[in-house]
Amino acid sequence: MVIGIDIDNTITHTTEMIMHYARIFGARKGLNTVSDPRFYYLEDALGWDQAVADEFLFQYLGHIYREMRPKEKAVEVIRELKKDHHIILITSRNQQYPQVEEATSVWLKQHGVEYDRLILNATSNMHYFSKLAVCLENQVDLMIEDHHDLVSEISAHMPVLMFDYPYNSHLKADNIIRVRHWEHIRLWVRSWQQA
Ligand SMILES: [Mg+2]
Q1: What is the CA radius of gyration of the chain?
Q2: What's the gap in Å between 86 CA and the centre of ligand 1?
Q3: pLDDT bracket for residue 127 (50, 70, 90)
Q4: Side-chain half-sphere exposure of 21, counting CA atoms within 13 A
Q5: Which pLDDT score is estimated for 99?
Q6: Helices 74-84 and 182-194 meet at what angle, rounded to 10?
Q7: SS3 state at 117
Q8: Comparing C-alpha atoms, which of 58, 100, 70 is closest to residue 5?
Q9: How far is the CA of 1 from the centre of ligand 1 (A)?
Q10: Nearest Cα to 9, choosing from 68, 73, 76?
C-alpha cells in the first residue's frame, strides 16, 4: 500500500513553533500575538496583513522548520508503517522559501523519520498546491493530513486519517477518520490491512 503523509501539524507540532516566533516578531512590531485557534492561516489566526505574515514567514520559516518537535509516537509509528508500506511525505512547504527544503530533510534525518520519498510544493504558489494531484499521480491509497480543504478534496478519492484540530472540526464524511494520536493511526492501518 502507498501511504501519503503530510508533515506540518501531522508529524510535527508546527503551529506551536510558529506561534513561539510570532510572539517575538509581533511584540517587536506592536502586532497582536494572541491567536484564534479556529483559523489555520497565520494571518487569519492573528489578524495580520498578508504582507506582514509573508515577511514573518520569509524571515523565520528556516528557524521554525529546524526547531519544531515531532508529535508523540510519530517517528515510531511511521517507521513501523514503512516496513509494510511505501511512505511518501507530501508537504505544501514551498521550495521557494529560503532554506526550506534543506531544513526539512535535515529535520527528518535528525529525528529519524523514515520514508521513501519527499514531495514539496514546487510551484510558485506559496499558499496552495494540489496534494490530490500528487496523491493520484503516485497511487496513494491512504492519506494522513490535517488541513481542512486538502482533507475535503482528497477524501473524495481515498480514506484520509485526519488529525483533529479546531480548524477542521466542521469536517465530517465517511472517508474521513478523525484521529488524535499516532497510536490511533497504527491501530487503524492494522485493522484496515486485515479487512
Ligand atoms: Mg499539515
Answers
A1: 17
A2: 20
A3: low
A4: 20
A5: 81
A6: 20
A7: strand
A8: 70
A9: 21
A10: 68
Angle between helices 50-67 and 14-29 (to 10 degrees): 130
Among residues 81, 63, 58, 60, which one has the least CA distance to residue 11? 81
Cell representation of residue 176:
474521513
147 alpha carbon – ligand 1 mean position (Å) = 5
Question: Is there a contact between 122 and 116 (Cβ–Cβ < 8 Å)?
Answer: no
The answer, yes or no, to whether residue 110 has pLDDT greater than 80, is: yes
Nearest Cα residue to 53 out of 99, 97, 112? 97
Tens digit of pLDDT for each residue in 9-37? 999 999 999 999 999 999 999 999 999 99
Reported pTM: 0.94
Question: Mean per-residue pLDDT for 126-155?
Answer: 93
pLDDT at 126: 66
Residue corresponding to grid cell 515531532: 70
Angle at 132 between CA 160 and CA 75, to 5 degrees: 50
| CA–centroid distance, residue 91 to ligand 1 (Å) | 7
Q: How far is the CA of 41 from the centre of ligand 1 (A)?
A: 11
For residue 123, give the nearest of 97, 149, 89, 88 by alpha carbon.
97
